[in-house]
Structure formats: C-alpha cells, structure tokens
Amino acid sequence: MTPLNNPPAGEKIMKEIRFKKWKKPLIKDGKPTKWNWLVRGVESLELGKDTDIGAFCYINATAGVVIENNVQIGGGVKIYSISTIDNKKGKIVLKKNCKIGANSVIMPGVTIGENSIVGALSFVTKDIPDNVLAYGVPAKVIKKIDNV
Ligand SMILES: CC(C)(COP(=O)(O)OP(=O)(O)OC[C@H]1O[C@@H](n2cnc3c(N)ncnc32)[C@H](O)[C@@H]1OP(=O)(O)O)[C@@H](O)C(=O)NCCC(=O)NCCS
After folding, report:
1. What percent of the chain stands above pLDDT 90?
2. Mean of the pLDDT values across residues 25-35?
3. Is the pLDDT at 1 greater than 70, yes or no?
4. How far apart, in whole angstroms, are the C-alpha atoms of residue 116 and residue 112?
5. Is the CB of 145 under 6 A from ligand 1?
6. 3-144 has which CATH code?
7. Cβ(5) to ligand 1 under 6 A?
8. Is 80 in the pocket of ligand 1 (CB under 6 A)?
C-alpha cells in the first residue's frame, strides 16, 4: 500500500514533470478559469506555486485565502472565507503541501496544516494541525501521517 503523502520515487518524478511548466494561472474575478474553477474576491487570494486546483472548485477569498506552495485541491471543493448563511468570516490558510479531497467544504477562519490530508466530502469547521489525516462531517483528525 502506498504510504499517505510519501509516494514512491516514480510518482515523485511524475509530479516534478507535471509541475515543470507550472505558471501562475490567469484568474478573473467571478469567471471560470480555463480549468473551470472560480474565485470571488481574487484580490484577497494569495496563490503559491505548484498548486493544483480541480475543476468546479469555488473559492470565496473576500476575507482572505492563502494557498501555499504545492497544495492540491480536489474537484468540487468549496472554500468560504465568508459564509453568509451563518454570518461567519475569517481568513483561510492552506499550508504548504496539504491536500484537500474532492467536494470538501472549508469554512471561514480555518487553517489546514502542512502536509495534512483532508479526506473527500469533509466539512472542515476547525483548524487541522500539520502532518495529519482528517476527514468527516465535521472533519476530525483520524491519525498522524508518518514519513512526511
Ligand atoms: C482520506 C483518504 C486519503 C484515506 O485513504 P486511506 O487511508 O486509503 O483510507 P481507506 O480507504 O483505507 O479507508 C479507511 C476507512 O475510512 C473511511 N473513509 C476513508 N475516507 C473517508 C472520507 N473521506 N470520509 C469518511 N470516511 C472515510 C473508509 O470508509 C474506511 O472505513 P472502514 O474502516 O469502516 O472500512 C481517502 O479515503 C480520501 O478521501 N482521498 C481523497 C481522494 C480524492 O478526493 N481524490 C480526488 C482528488 S485527486
């Protein structure tokens, strides 16, 4: 079994090739990018390099969103720095090398730690520390990730 967050050498090489030509994406506020993800409040988004954002993601960056280097975000993830349904607001930080599974929701004020993995379909309402696997509704830490 492939250890979480510690891919074998071949996969590491594939990733290096994949990001060799990485360029900062062109993002127009409220318009889908060429990869079909969309940002509102783009002036408050800080996007690191070698980041990978899947199709149909929605990022409301109005109150600040920081996506550090090497972050991977699965398709359909929703990142809300402002949530008008429950009047929540706060900067979101996705620290370097973390991964967010498909269709998860990240709520205002949350920080996801370095190297951590959030499982698919999670509802993240609280900070997730570095080097852990977390998932669920609401997301909870399941275990530490070794070999990161
Ligand atoms: C969280 C994750 C990384 C865990 O992988 P894993 O360690 O191989 O876990 P397993 O598949 O062995 O699952 C272990 C158990 O947790 C459960 N589980 C796994 N992921 C879950 C999730 N996201 N939410 C709820 N339960 C989950 C499984 O049902 C299983 O339950 P069981 O013990 O009752 O059988 C993986 O399930 C996941 O969500 N990956 C994200 C995939 C994705 O989004 N890809 C698209 C973007 S590239």
Report:
1. 84
2. 97
3. no
4. 7
5. no
6. 2.160.10.10
7. no
8. no
- Mean pLDDT for the chain? 93
pTM listed for this prediction: 0.92
Residue 117 beta carbon below 6 angstroms from any ligand 1 atom? yes
Question: Where residue 75 falls among pLDDT bands split at 50, 70, 90?
Answer: very high
Alpha-carbon distance of 110 to 8, in angstroms, equals 31
CA distance 113 to 40: 23
Instruction: Give me the residue spans of the domains in the chain.
Output: 3-144
Query: Phi, psi at residue 43, to the nearest 5°?
Result: -65, -15
Are the C-beta atoms of 41 and 62 separated by less than 8 Å? yes
Mean pLDDT of all residues in 3-21: 72
SS3 54: coil
The answer to whether 78 and 105 have CB atoms below 8 angstroms apart is yes
Between CA 17 and CA 99 the distance in angstroms is 19
Give the single-character DSSP code of 43: G
State which of 135, 143, 147, 148 you would mutate to test the pocket of ligand 1, scoring each by most atoms of that ligand within 8 A of its C-beta: 135
Asked whether 79 and 71 are in contact (CB, 8 A), the reply is no
